[in-house]
Amino acid sequence: MSFSEYLTYQWDDLLELAVGNMLVVLISLAIATFIGVTIGVLTYRRPAAAQVVLAIASTILTIPSFALFGIAIGIGLGLGYPPTIVVLTGYAILAILRNTITGLRSVDPAITESAKGMGMSNWQQLVRIEIPMAWPVIIAGVRVSALLILGISAIAAYVGGPGFGSEIFEGLSTLGGVNSLNLVLSGMLGVIVLALVFEVLFAILSRFTTSKGLN
């Protein structure tokens, strides 16, 4: 059958794959954002500590995804969502952590000194001044991580993870079959559409969560 006919026939299944793919990316991204921002806040004023955590996060990113998924299975995470979320979270941390540290360090010291002169504590300066001013840089890191792990999530089919990877893997394993090309194309198209959806969502999120004076 033609590709358009395949999409029509498999629409419900593809929609289910899209929901699963987006869900696992959002869960991983939420966990990575919490970890990355927290560690960034704790280390941005400590250059040595920041270098160490960035080096660790960078090392995780250099591990081939197939190997990391295999390690996740080997340490007892089983198949499906658990290894997928753990691996995607690991890959997502670096950009968020790096941008958090960079964004917080880029805040003009004169502004923080003025806040301190007004009697603000370090915590108040962080929450009311530094994080809002660093937010555009932080959200950019989250966006980069989202697109990165969206692509890697397709490989999660290797460990039974949800998403369009199952379509791509099935198509590649049956090359020459009746619908092998349709399977690969539908999986690739699904990932591309989700990437566009994430781009739109982050554009909206950035616009409505960034202080007006920073737009």
What does this structure look like?
The protein is mainly α and 215 residues long. The N and C termini lie far apart (49 Å). It has a single domain (3-214), classed as MetI-like fold, CATH 1.10.3720.10. The model has no long low-confidence stretch (mean pLDDT 89). The chain is 81% helix and 0% strand. The longest helix has 33 residues, at 11-43.
Provide tags for this entry.
single chain; 215 residues; mainly alpha; MetI-like fold; 9 helices; elongated
Would you count the extended β strands for me?
A: 0
CATH class: Mainly Alpha
Low-confidence stretches: none
Q: How far apart, in Å, are the first and last alpha carbons?
A: 49 Å
State the CATH architecture: Orthogonal Bundle
One letter per element, helices H and strands E, the order comes to HHHHHHHHH
Number of helices: 9
Main beta sheet, described? Answer: none
| Name given to the CATH homologous superfamily | MetI-like
The rounded Rg comes to 20 Å
Residues in β-strands, percent: under 5%
Q: Would you tell me the overall average pLDDT?
A: 89
Residue share in helix:
over 70%
Alpha-beta classification:
mainly alpha
Q: What gross morphology would you assign?
A: elongated
CATH fold field value = MetI-like fold
Total domains: 1
